[in-house]
């Protein structure tokens, strides 16, 4: 439960102010401005207590969004609510900026009145809100439409309205994974995990039920397959997962299949995390040699370890340099390399790289002599990339669509599944 919601610009001026409960006075607005926005020291905590009042804030571009309460509330729930408010605003008018907030403040107040009632968050689903709040204001609706809205807001399937029709029924599934790695200079993996999410675009008529299976170890073993077979089928161990509200959790627990009635359009269906048997797309091998106190010789080899038929894109390797660097001479086999003095790093970019290939860069770094005897700490080499497969080994085994009321079957639906692997924090110590 929150007492009020305030939105400030970078100067501390109030753009949006909505008080939901009487225990929050107008002085709460000034207290946050003085103690957080205009604070002399850097404010690191997103939760601030001022005069027995708690302020939960998030910052987006140059705007501060703060929820205020005097109650002992669940902090994670308040932050989840603030992120939902930002998401709703973005869906209505795009980028969150001071100009957009000022241009749409009437709409924002309408949304805040619908989203929160007496400090309690209600409906934050954009699809439902858009049925009765338009950008021009509240839409005048007929009795039939009003009844449909009421049933949608209070019904079990609040994320999808009835009567949706498409000429072509299509379903797009994107498996997007972010690989995080910390590797020692000798090539030992110190820590590695994959954070993945499944994005879905559904353009399906009626109220279809979708069902898809994944190569999770629990799901494979529950089918009665022996452990050896499940290993050869490249089953993966998912550490934890989080689903969209449309997923029927009871079926996942009993059948280990993901069954749901999808929202119309684009949505995030699932998030998951895995730490075992990760197929690392690249290995970075660094070699740093100090030649006296005025010179450094650096050689970095990048090896790809995926199938030769696949192609990685948008490769960027950042090699850190000491603060007292005066000049850099570069030789690279592939791509383009440039020394950026403002970032104290050599940035090496490669457009494309095939599987089971390697490329290297050599650099001679000239150093200025300094009075300090402090040794250079050698920050890790970081890497960015994009590959057309899931590094965790995640696979969609099947994807089915059922619609009993309308005359179309699973074979009539055009289905697409795409795998994208990207770098998260992908670092190698040198």
Kindly state the percentage of residues in helix: 10-25%
Number of strands: 25
Average pLDDT metric: 85
**What gap, in angstroms, lies between the N and C termini?**
49 Å
- Helices and strands: which structural class? alpha+beta
Helix segment count?
A: 9
- Which regions are unreliable across 5 or more consecutive residues at pLDDT < 50? 136-142, 224-233
Strand content: 35-45%
Shape: flat
Largest sheet, in brief, is: 9 strands, mixed
Radius of gyration: 27 Å
* Widest β-sheet, arrangement of strands: 13-15-11-10-25-23-18-21-20
Describe what this molecule looks like in 3D:
With 430 residues, the chain is α+β, with helices and mostly antiparallel strands. The protein is built from nine helices and 25 strands. Strands 13-15-11-10-25-23-18-21-20 form a nine-stranded mixed sheet, with no helix packed on it. The protein has a five-stranded antiparallel sheet with strand order 2-1-5-4-3. A four-stranded antiparallel sheet has the order 16-17-22-19, with no helix packed on it. The two termini are 49 Å apart. Mean pLDDT is 85; it is low at 136-142 and 224-233.
